[in-house]
């Protein structure tokens, strides 16, 4: 069990402490469930009423919110960021260390210091693993792939051949990096496969969610920039390029050769068609379909919001009538103009 004093926590997250610096903390919890040895935080004012009854040993708050909690406070302009930093201090460590006897490491592979390989891991020819790399059970690293220092692969991760992963990355269970892109040429009634000759390059400090797939490039590499965050079950097609610090939520799919700029945010269940370019700072809201390039930063949406079924059905019917209604409106405007003349 981890133990940190409130003083150490304040130093760790850059907060100002109001309370006993020697009070011992063993974990994090919500305002409603926290006990005297746990820290909580307030990032959404709709939970502010819980501060009155919270038993937390300390709460991370904005400076102007200190009066809302009677106990020790950790004062920070961005409490949610403070919570994120503190959560890492209490995260459980890997359950395996060293190289398991059942791991298969090709003799031409280069293995760094303090590498952990769990049971069933397979490391292919000419692979390079950096220092302090951890690879979970039954994961595979294919030929000529490189994994940077302090990167972690969870269980059942597959890196195909010629995949580059940067330092301090996290790849969650079931992710597949470097599978063939969806490339076929029409041949009469059938299809001829296009060999995918590129690879995948993933920058430093990238996180890839469980079950996410990143396809290899057809000729050049698929590129994932620095600090990119991908949620679970995201599909990145061949030769997509993701700019630095872009984040993509679950079940979004991006078709081939599309380029996203830096600091983009793509919400869940979006579809982005191929050969598009999205500018830096684009935010696409949930369940949107992007079919054209976006040249200006900002928030973009498509689709219709949830409504009662009967009302939605009426509006859906009217949507199909929009073209006819627009033509009638244009005709009426013309007739009104003629009457005024």
What does this entry look like structurally?
Helix content is 15%, strand content 28%. A hairpin with a 2-residue loop joins strand 21 and strand 22. The longest helix has 19 residues, at 322-340. The chain is flat. The mean pLDDT is 95. With 341 residues, it is α/β, with parallel strands linked by helices. It folds into three domains: 4-89, Udp-n-acetylmuramoylalanyl-d-glutamate--2,6- Diaminopimelate Ligase, Chain: A, domain 1, CATH 3.40.1390.10; 157-300, UDP N-Acetylglucosamine Acyltransferase, domain 1; 312-340. The termini are far apart. The protein has four helices and 38 strands. A ten-stranded parallel sheet has the order 8-11-14-17-20-25-28-31-34-37, with no helix packed on it.
In summary, what is this structure?
The protein has three domains: 4-89, MurE/MurF, N-terminal domain (Udp-n-acetylmuramoylalanyl-d-glutamate--2,6- Diaminopimelate Ligase, Chain: A, domain 1); 157-300, Hexapeptide repeat proteins (UDP N-Acetylglucosamine Acyltransferase, domain 1, 3 Solenoid), CATH 2.160.10.10; 312-340.
């Amino acid at each position: 069990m981890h133990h940190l004093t409130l003083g150490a926590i304040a130093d760790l997250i850059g907060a100002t402490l109001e309370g006993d610096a020697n009070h011992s903390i063993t974990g994090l919890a919500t305002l409603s469930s926290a006990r005297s040895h746990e820290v909580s935080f307030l990032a959404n004012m709709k939970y502010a009423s819980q501060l009155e009854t919270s038993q937390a040993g300390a709460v991370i708050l904005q400076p102007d919110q200190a009066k809302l909690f009677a106990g020790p406070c950790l004062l920070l302009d961005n409490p949610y960021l403070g919570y994120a930093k503190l959560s890492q201090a209490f995260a459980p460590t890997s359950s395996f260390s060293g190289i398991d006897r059942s791991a298969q490491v090709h003799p031409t592979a280069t293995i760094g210091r303090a590498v952990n390989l769990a049971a069933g891991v397979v490391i292919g020819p000419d692979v390079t693993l950096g220092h302090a790399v951890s690879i979970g059970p039954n994961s595979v690293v294919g030929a000529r792939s490189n994994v940077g220092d302090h990167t972690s692969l969870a269980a059942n991760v597959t890196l195909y051949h010629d995949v580059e992963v940067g330092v301090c990355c996290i790849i969650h269970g079931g992710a597949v990096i470097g599978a063939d892109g969806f490339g076929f040429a029409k041949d009469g009634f059938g299809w001829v496969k296009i060999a995918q000759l590129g690879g995948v390059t993933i920058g430093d400090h990238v996180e890839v969610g469980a079950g996410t797939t990143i396809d290899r490039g057809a000729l050049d590499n698929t590129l994932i920039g620095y600090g990119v965050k991908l949620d679970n079950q995201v599909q990145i097609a061949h030769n997509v390029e993701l700019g630095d610090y872009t984040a993509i939520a679950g079940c979004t799919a991006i078709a081939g050769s599309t380029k996203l700029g830096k600091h983009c945010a793509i919400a869940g269940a979006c579809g982005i068609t191929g050969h598009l370019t999205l500018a830096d700072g684009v935010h696409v809201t949930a369940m949107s379909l992007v079919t054209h390039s976006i040249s200006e930063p900002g928030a973009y949406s498509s689709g219709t919001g949830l409504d009662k079924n009967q009302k939605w059905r009426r509006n859906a019917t009217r949507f199909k009538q929009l073209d006819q209604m627009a033509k009638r409106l244009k005709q009426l405007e013309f007739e009104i103009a003629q009457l005024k003349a």
